[in-house]
Amino acid sequence: MAQTVLVTGGAGYIGAHACKVLKAAGFTPVTFDNLNTGWEEAVKYGPFFKGDLMNRADVDAAFAQYRPVAVLHFAALSLVGESMKDPGKYWRVNVMGALNLIEGAIAAGCLNFVFSSTCATYGDQDGVLLDETSVQMPINSYGASKRAIEDMLNNFAESHGLNRVIFRYFNVAGCDPEGEIGEQHVPETHLIPLMLEAVAGKRPALTVFGTDYPTRDGTCVRDYVHVMDLVDAHVLGLQWLLEGKGNRVFNLGTGTGFTVHEVIDASRTVTNREVPITLGDRRAGDAVALVSGSARAIEELGWQPKRSNLRDMIGDAWVWAQQPGFSK
Ligand code: UDP
C-alpha cells in the first residue's frame, strides 16, 4: 500500500511540484494548506486537507485522519522584502506554525520531518561558496525565521528523537515541463516570472534591483535550481529518513551563480523577444551573491539535477507564463 505523507503548503508552488513527484514515486501526498497563498487547483496528486498551521487543532485533525509516515513542511511566508517591513508576521506565522506542526507530528508519533529551509539563513558572505558548514548569519527576518525553525528541529531531535532532513534552497525556478502546474504568486516578486510577465506584455517592464553591487556586471548573483530537480531531492530526502539514515542538512543549488543581467540575456535567447527593463535601486535585504556548494546532496543523497540550467528553467516557465494560470 502507498505510504501517506503530509505535505504542508502542497497547494503552493514548490509543494504542488513535490506532490507530483511524490505520487510518481509511489507515495500518497496529503496536502495541508490554508489557501492563503496557494491554489486549490494545484492540488491534483492526492487528498486535500484545508487547515491552518496556526491552529493546533487543525494539525492534530490532519494527523489523526491520515496517519502519515512523514511530514514535508513547505508552508511558509517567503517574501524577503515583506519580512523586512513586517518581521512580526514572519516570526509569528513561520515559527509558530512550525512549532504547532512539530509538536503535532510528535504527538501523533510521526517522527520523520523534511523541512524547507533557505540559503537566506547564510546571509551575505562576500561571494564565497556557501556549503552546509558555512556559518548562518541571516540578514532578513525571513532567513532568521527559517534559521529559528532549524534550531527548533534540532532541539526536538535531541529531546524527542525527531528525525529531520533540512534542505536549504537556493533560487528555485522553472516549473513542471508537462505544464500541469506552474509558479503563480500574488503578488509575484521573483525574478524569472516577473521577467517573463514583462516579456509577455502582462506588465510594462522588469525593474532591475540595484546595478552597483560588487559583481561582474553590478547586479546580484544567484544560484538558480529547477523546481523539478529540487523536489526530486525531497523524495530522496524522504527515502533517506524512511531508511533510518538520520539527521542531515543539504544545500540545494548548482554551484553556479548568474547575475540578473545574465538571466535577462538568457531569456532573450529562449523566448526570442526583448525584455523591457528599468534600472532601479537596491532592494532591502538582498545579499550580493548566494551560490551553493552542493556536493553533499549529490554525493550522499545521489541527487542528479537534470534541468537546472537557465535554458530549461526559463523555457519551462515561459510555456507556463503564456497559459491562463490558476484562478481562485
Ligand atoms: N530581482 C530584480 N527585479 C525583480 C525581482 C528580483 O532585479 O523584480 C533580483 C533580486 O534583487 C535578486 C534576484 O533578482 O538579486 C533574485 O530575486 P528573487 O526575488 O527572484 O529571489 P531571492 O534571491 O530574493 O530569493
TrEMBL record:
> Which pathway does UniProt place it in?
Carbohydrate metabolism; galactose metabolism
Matching CDD domains: UDP_G4E_1_SDR_e (cd05247)
- What terms describe the molecular function in GO for this protein? UDP-glucose 4-epimerase activity
Identify which cofactors the protein needs according to its UniProt entry.
NAD(+)
Q: Name one Pfam family in it.
A: Epimerase
GO terms, biological process:
galactose catabolic process via UDP-galactose, Leloir pathway
Among InterPro entries, the record links this protein to: Epimerase_deHydtase, NAD(P)-bd_dom_sf, UDP_G4E
Q: Which reaction does it catalyse?
A: UDP-alpha-D-glucose = UDP-alpha-D-galactose
What positions does the domain NAD-dependent epimerase/dehydratase occupy?
Answer: 5-253
Top-tier EC class: isomerase
Q: Which domain of life is it from?
A: Bacteria
Q: Which UniProt keywords apply?
A: Carbohydrate metabolism, Isomerase, NAD
The UniProt record lists the EC number as 5.1.3.2
Similarity comment: family membership: Belongs to the NAD(P)-dependent epimerase/dehydratase family.
Assembly information from the UniProt record: Homodimer.
Q: What is this protein called?
A: UDP-glucose 4-epimerase
Origin species = Gemmobacter aquatilis
Q: List the lineage, top down.
A: Bacteria, Pseudomonadati, Pseudomonadota, Alphaproteobacteria, Rhodobacterales
